[in-house]
């Protein structure tokens, strides 16, 4: 799994689940189609065993909470896409087994949670609830009214967090030298071609357009051109693109990310070569379509400097190392444990 998360996060998701269930009883005025009718797999839990880790049985209740953690939109859509269901199920199952292995290892090492840390965690957990009554309803529904059971769950979460901090988090930060060495070993990754960044307003006639439709297109682009020439900023040009453009870029204010020169139509490239940043092109005809370009930036071919990618590389290498350490820990813990998936 590509994330670091303790069971406290899962417990917090349980609060959302309880709230979601309560809200689902409110009248909507619309009939909601079943998940299956939308190409979704409904998520349900009945307390059935899904795995055994040594002497501890994990149920589909644990699995359901983890599936919601992986795919939060399942609540909104009342299920998960069929094509993703096996992957989400397997990932959730591996995660709850891994967390149980970590918890049992923390117990074996006799790790303890300081009283002050427990008190803070309990206080933070209570803050999720708008009122004491809402908190009590949650405890009653999920922990049979026992705050001791809730404290045990919080303690379990903190023990998992403590062991992961010791075995993973404290060891996954790359040194500056490691980040630099990665940059030097992967120079091709940081090479970039010559490119242009720009916005467009385009008029695209329908396929097999009639002479009248082509004439209408020309009239539209000429009207758009007059307005575009008056635009002083990218935002102003973008607002025009939203209203006047036919191409898909209108939904992002006509904005194109840096486009390599070998991917540009020759007439567009020729226009950009003759322009200065901030300028608006003349009307450019591309077969039967028309476009207007607002030129923003030209990037020459070269290598992105290390200082510009250092922070991002640090994050990438830390995440990669974290995943490697978690995989290694999972493998190590499984070697001395009995894990059975049901």
Give the structure's gist in a few sentences:
53% of the residues lie in helices and 14% in strands. By secondary structure, the protein is an alpha+beta fold.
Description:
The protein is α+β, with helices and mostly antiparallel strands. It has helices at 7-23, 60-70, 73-77, 85-108, 115-126, 132-143, 147-167, 176-185, 211-230, 234-244, 266-273, 306-335; strands at 40-41, 49-53, 56-59, 80-81, 191-192, 195-203, 255-260, 284-286, 289-299, 302-303, 339-341. A four-stranded antiparallel beta sheet has the order 7-6-9-8, with helices on both faces. It has a three-stranded antiparallel beta sheet with strand order 3-2-11. A two-stranded antiparallel sheet has the order 1-4. β8 (284-286) and β9 (289-299) form a beta hairpin. It is elongated, with a radius of gyration of 28 Å. It starts with 6 loop residues before the first helix and ends with a strand. Mean pLDDT is 88; it is low at 1-34.
**Unreliable spans:** 1-34
Strand order of the largest sheet: 7-6-9-8
Fraction in helix: 40-55%
Q: What is the CATH topology assignment of the largest domain? A: Triger factor/SurA peptide-binding fold
CATH superfamily of the largest domain, called what? Answer: Porin chaperone SurA, peptide-binding domain
CATH architecture of the largest domain: Orthogonal Bundle
Supply the key terms.
Triger factor/SurA peptide-binding fold; Chitinase A, domain 3; 2 domains; 342 residues; 3-stranded antiparallel β-sheet; 12 helices
């Amino acid at each position: 799994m590509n994330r670091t998360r303790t069971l406290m996060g899962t417990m917090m998701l349980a609060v959302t689940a309880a709230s979601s269930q309560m809200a689902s009883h409110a009248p909507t005025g619309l009939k909601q189609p079943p998940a299956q009718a939308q190409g979704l797999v409904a998520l349900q839990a009945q307390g059935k065993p899904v795995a055994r880790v040594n002497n501890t049985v994990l149920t589909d209740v644990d699995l359901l909470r983890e599936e919601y953690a992986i795919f939060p939109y399942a609540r909104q859509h009342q299920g998960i896409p069929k094509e993703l269901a096996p992957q989400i199920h397997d990932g959730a199952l591996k995660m709850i087994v891994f967390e149980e292995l970590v918890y049992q290892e923390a117990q074996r090492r006799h790790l303890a949670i300081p009283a002050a840390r427990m008190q803070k965690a309990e206080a933070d957990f209570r803050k999720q609830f708008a009122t004491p009554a809402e908190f009590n309803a949650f405890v009653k529904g999920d922990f049979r009214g026992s705050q001791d059971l809730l404290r045990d769950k919080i303690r379990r979460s903190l023990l998992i967090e403590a062991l992961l901090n010791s075995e993973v988090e404290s060891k996954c930060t790359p040194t500056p030298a490691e980040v630099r060495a990665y940059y030097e070993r992967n120079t091709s990754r940081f090479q970039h071609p010559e490119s242009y960044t720009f916005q467009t307003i385009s008029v695209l006639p329908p396929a097999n357009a009639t002479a009248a439709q082509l004439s209408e297109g020309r009239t539209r682009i000429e009207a758009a051109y007059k307005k575009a020439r008056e635009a002083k900023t990218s935002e102003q040009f973008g607002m025009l693109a939203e209203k006047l453009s036919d191409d898909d870029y209108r939904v992002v204010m006509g904005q194109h990310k840096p486009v390599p020169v070998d991917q540009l139509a020759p007439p567009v490239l020729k226009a950009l070569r003759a322009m200065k940043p901030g300028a608006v092109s003349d009307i450019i005809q591309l077969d039967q379509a028309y476009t207007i370009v607002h030129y923003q930036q030209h990037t020459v071919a070269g290598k992105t400097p290390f200082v510009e990618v250092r922070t991002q590389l640090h994050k990438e290498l830390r995440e990669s190392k974290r995943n490697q350490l978690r995989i290694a820990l999972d493998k190590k813990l499984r070697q001395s444990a009995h894990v059975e998936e049901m």
